[in-house]
Known about the structure:
The complex is a heterodimer.
Chain A: H1 22-27, H2 37-46, H3 49-66, H4 103-139, H5 141-156, H6 159-169, H7 176-203, H8 206-213, H9 218-254, H10 266-273, H11 282-309
Helix pairs in contact in A: 2-11, 3-4, 3-11, 4-5, 4-7, 4-9, 4-11, 5-7, 6-7, 7-9, 8-9, 9-10, 9-11, 10-11
Chain B: H1 2-28, H2 34-38, H3 46-55, H4 62-74, H5 87-122, H6 127-141, H7 144-158, H8 172-202, H9 205-212, H10 217-246, H11 249-255, H12 260-270, H13 273-301
Helix pairs in contact in B: 1-13, 5-6, 5-8, 5-10, 6-8, 7-8, 7-11, 8-10, 8-11, 9-10, 10-13, 11-12, 12-13
Amino acid sequence: xxxxxxxxxxxxxFSDIDETGLGAVDAVPDDRPPASLLGEAWRQLRRRPIxxxxxxxxxxxxxxxxxxxxFTSVDPRYAELSHSLGLPExxxxxxxxxxxxxxxxxxxxxxxxxxxxxxxxxxxxxxxGTIVGSIAGFRGxxxxxxxxxxxxxxxxxxxxxxxxxxxxxxxxSRSIWTVVVVISxxxxxxxxxxxxxxxxxxxxxxxxxxxxxLGSGGLSNMLRHILPNAAAPIIVYATVALGxxxxxxxxxxxxxxGLPPTIVSWGADISSARSVLREAPQVLFYxxxxxxxxxxxxxxxxxxxxxxxxPKARK
Amino acid sequence: MKRYVGRRLLQLIPVxxxxxxxxxxxxxxxxxxxxxxxxxxxxxxPAVRLAIEKEYHLDQPLIVQYxxxxxxxFTFDFGVTFSGRPVVEVMADAFPxxxxxxxxAIVFESVFGIAFGVFAGLRRGGVFDSTxxxxxxxxxxxxxxxxxxxxxxxxxxxxxxxxxxxDRSMSFKSMLxxxxxxxAVSFAYILRLTRTEVARNATAxxxxxxxxxxxxxxxxxxxxxxxxxxxxxxxFIGADLGALMGGAIVTEGIFNIxxxxxxxxxxxxxxxxxxxxxxxxxxxxxxIFTSLIVDLLYAxxxxxxxxx
Lengths: 315, 308
């Protein structure tokens, strides 16, 4: 402020522009449109190494799940008892399990079941949870009371125990789909709750009132204005939940009620590794490590996306 | 406040009936014919079979059977197992194990989760913070049974510090490792929750005011930051008791604990409907009452929340 006339005694009344934060405000070009929430989030994400690590982990596990034969030419079901608990040898970098099957091949092929269960469960839970949650949050009143009580019922039932009962009902016809349906059955209420409160919050916003004043109807209001603004917490939770669904599938397989034994899965391999843990820890290490890395990828991604979408948590 | 409690209680009634009916219907759909199994290889005479079906109302439709079951519950009659043992006795055997295990897990996860979380939150971005954050994510990513196997193998078998399985006397020493395994995932959640809350509150205006009026750092942390940060943490811990009791099955299996999970697992595979339904009813009740207490706690701890 060089042109400002400074009278004696006023030297400390005005600070120089460089001492204030106003320079940064002036530096923002006003001919550019303001950054959108997503654009700002993307700028944040790009700078975080954890984002790139988790993206690489997710990409890698999805790639292995889709094309396991690119990574190994060994049959994961081929068992040779003379190799039982055998140490690594050329062509078999991780050694062999109790049945003499190649651990590396089993670890690679096990990705498919885990990733498939995680992704399918997430899609079903998000679809049901978003529909129920947005109806409850948008309509309010008796619809909200009814749907919220239904959600509560599923929270009140202990999940693992109910899962055992349901898997026992379908014990003759177990497949990936039964596992997906069982986990989704207890997965959607959480998403419904998150979606309900996000919709209720977005409903109060002025732009929704404005849209209604302009004559926009209930459904188009919901789809065009409310849901897109309520999506952030759902996306974050769904990413983390995908990881936890994979852990759940492994837990069910560990309890002997998950995927049928014909499907190669990390959970079943970990559970069968228990009896040989003392002689051959590597049998546990590889499937458990692969599972942990895959889940870690999704959880870290959810975490880092949450930070990026929350303007208050920045800096 | 009174009206709020009343409304919450009223809301929980349909939840109780809904949850118990769902469980009842699921158990009803379980395959197998336990009555035929009673007769062994010879089989039951049709008249005996009819008599048994009549005695246990098995000839009635599902909804009527459920109502008979509810009548039993409200008169504290949980029925008998196939071998004739009252289910109440089976519950008295199993529940103390799981309750003690869950309570020990709660103490472990709260004490360590909050302590670690506060230290990490006060020095956000520091070495301790980053290490603890990565380790907590790892705890969430690794399934409980892998953590259980590893601890059992390293601490129990290799180092011999703690017993590998639990002894019949339920001693503190033998329950310690299972409790840590059971509470491991919640420990990670509590740590992360505490850290986020402490880091958020540490920069709040009232903290600056407290510092400005001359309070020492420990006073600011304990009286102002912690008090406000712990509200969501305490509600999480309260809601966790029911989850831990229902989810203890894996831990109980690893450490050979004859608790709720193991008993139910066996009962489901044998088609012991009375045991399965009664155990789940108790767990549903535990969930309902802990969530009610959590709601009230929330209101008591945070005066900003007003319930009309």
